[in-house]
Specification:
The complex is a heterodimer of chains A (61) and B (312). Chain A is 61% helix and 13% strand. Chain A has helices spanning 20-52, 55-58, and strands spanning 3-6, 14-17. The longest helix of chain A is centred in the middle third of the chain and has 33 residues, at 20-52. Chain B has helices at 21-27, 30-46, 53-77, 79-82, 100-121, 124-144, 152-161, 163-172, 177-199, 202-208, 213-216, 219-236, 239-242, 248-270, 275-309, and strands spanning 2-5, 9-12. In chain B, helix 8 (163-172) packs antiparallel against helix 9 and helix 14 (248-270) runs antiparallel to helix 15 (275-309). The longest helix of chain B has 35 residues, at 275-309. Chain B is flat, with a radius of gyration of 22 Å. The chains are: A alpha+beta (61), B mainly alpha (312).
Chain lengths: 61, 312
C-alpha cells in the first residue's frame, strides 16, 4: 500500500502550458523578432560602412 | 510507505500575455506613424545641405520607431478609457489580447533604442528632439492634458507637429525658420482635424470622461473654433511661399486646398447637431487628412525637383 502526500505548493515546480493558438502566436513572434534583428544587423552594418567611408583606408595602424 | 508528490503544477497562460504579431504592430499606430515619417521626410527634403541616403533612411527608421514607441506608451496608459470608446475599444489592450505591461515594456524599449540610434548615427540634436516629442506626447499630452483640459489637443498637437523639425535637424544639425513654419502648419491643422472628429464622436469622449471641446464647451463653441483655426491655418500654409522655400506649385495647391478647407469649415460652422451637421464634420475630417498630405507632397515634389535640376 502506498500513500501519496502532496508536497507544500512552494516545493512543486510550476509550469506554464500553452494552448495550440498560443504556441502558434509565440512562433510568429519569434519569427518577427528574428526578422527585425536581421534587419537591424543589416542596417548597422551599412550605416557603419557609410560612416567610415574612405577613412578605413587612411586610419592609422 | 509514504512519499511526496513532486509532479509539476501546470497552469494555463493568461490569454492577455503573448499577443499576435499584428497586436504589436497595432500598438505602433501605423497610420499615425506613416504621417510622422512622411512629414519628417519632407522636413529632410526641404532642408539645405545633403545627407547620405543611407543615413537619411536610418534617420527615418529611428523617427518611425520613436513615433511607434510613443503610440505604444499612449495605449498602455489609456487602456482604461480606450475600452470605453467605440473607436478604440478594439485596440489590443482593452480587447484583452495584450497585457498592459507588455505594451509598456515594448514602448520603453523602442523609445530608448530609437533615440539612442538616432543620436549615434545622425546627430544628438535630432535625437533630443525625438526624445522631447515622445516625452511630450506620452507625459504632457497622454498623462496630463488629455484627461484634464479641452486644450488637450491644442497643446498636445505639438508632439505630432515636430517630426518635420526632427527631419530638418537630422540634415542640418540645427533648427531653421522653415522647419518652424512646417511645425506651425501641422500644429494649427491638428485642432480642427480632431474637433471635427469629436463633433460626431462626442458621446464616446463623454462616456470616457475625456474633456474634448464639444463635451465641455458645447458644439457651438467647437464649430466657431474650427472655423477660426481653419482660416488661420489656410493663411499660415502660404508662409512657405512668402519665405521662399516653396514654389508656385505649392502656392497654388495651398491656396486652393486652403479655400476648400475653409469652405468645409464654414459648412460645419453653419450646420447643427443633426445628420447634416455630422456629415459636414465627417467631410471636414476626411478632407483635412488629404489637405495635409497634399501640402507636404507638393513640398516634397518641389524639393526633389530642385534637387534633380540642381536648384538650391
Amino acid at each position: 500500500m502506498s500513500l501519496i502526500v502532496n508536497a507544500e505548493p512552494d516545493d512543486r515546480l510550476e509550469r506554464v502550458t500553452l494552448t495550440d493558438a498560443q504556441k502558434r502566436r509565440q512562433r510568429a513572434r519569434s519569427v518577427a523578432i528574428g526578422l527585425a534583428l536581421a534587419a537591424l544587423v543589416a542596417l548597422f552594418y551599412v550605416v557603419t560602412i557609410v560612416k567610415l567611408g574612405s577613412n578605413v583606408a587612411t586610419a592609422p595602424m | 510507505m509514504a512519499f511526496f508528490d513532486t509532479s509539476p503544477i501546470d497552469r494555463p497562460l493568461d490569454e492577455a500575455w503573448g499577443g499576435d504579431v499584428g497586436d504589436y504592430v497595432a500598438l505602433l499606430k501605423p497610420r499615425v506613424m506613416s504621417l510622422v515619417v512622411f512629414t519628417a521626410l519632407v522636413g529632410m527634403a526641404v532642408a539645405p545641405g545633403h545627407v547620405h541616403p543611407v543615413i537619411g533612411f536610418a534617420a527615418l527608421v529611428a523617427i518611425a520607431v520613436g513615433a511607434g514607441a510613443a503610440g505604444a506608451l499612449n495605449m498602455w496608459f489609456d487602456a482604461d478609457i480606450d475600452g470605453l470608446m467605440r473607436r478604440t475599444a478594439r485596440r489590443p489592450i482593452p480587447a484583452g489580447r495584450l497585457a498592459a505591461g507588455e505594451a509598456l515594456a515594448f514602448g520603453l524599449t523602442l523609445a530608448v533604442g530609437a533615440v539612442t540610434f538616432l543620436g549615434l548615427v545622425v546627430n544628438w540634436l535630432s535625437a533630443a528632439l525625438l526624445a522631447f516629442t515622445i516625452l511630450f506626447y506620452v507625459v504632457v499630452y497622454t498623462m496630463w492634458l488629455k484627461r484634464t483640459t479641452p486644450l488637450n489637443i491644442v497643446i498636445g498637437g505639438l508632439a505630432g507637429a515636430l517630426p518635420p523639425m526632427i527631419g530638418w535637424a537630422a540634415v542640418t544639425g540645427s533648427i531653421g525658420l522653415p522647419a518652424v513654419v512646417l511645425v506651425l502648419i501641422i500644429f494649427l491643422w491638428t485642432p480642427p482635424h480632431f474637433w471635427a472628429l469629436s463633433l460626431y464622436r462626442s458621446d464616446d469622449y463623454a462616456r470616457a470622461g475625456v474633456p474634448m471641446l464639444p463635451v465641455v464647451a458645447g458644439t457651438g463653441v467647437t464649430r466657431r473654433r474650427i472655423l477660426a483655426y481653419s482660416i488661420v491655418l489656410a493663411l499660415v500654409a502660404l508662409a512657405p511661399v512668402a519665405l521662399g522655400f516653396a514654389g508656385v506649385s505649392y502656392g497654388v495647391v495651398a491656396a486652393l486646398s486652403g479655400a476648400v478647407f475653409v469652405a468645409l469649415a464654414w459648412r460645419v460652422y453653419r450646420s447643427g447637431d443633426d445628420a447634416r451637421g455630422e456629415r459636414a464634420a465627417r467631410d471636414l475630417f476626411t478632407f483635412s487628412l488629404l489637405y495635409l498630405f497634399l501640402l507636404f507632397a507638393v513640398l516634397l515634389a518641389e524639393a526633389m525637383g530642385a534637387g534633380l535640376t540642381g536648384v538650391a
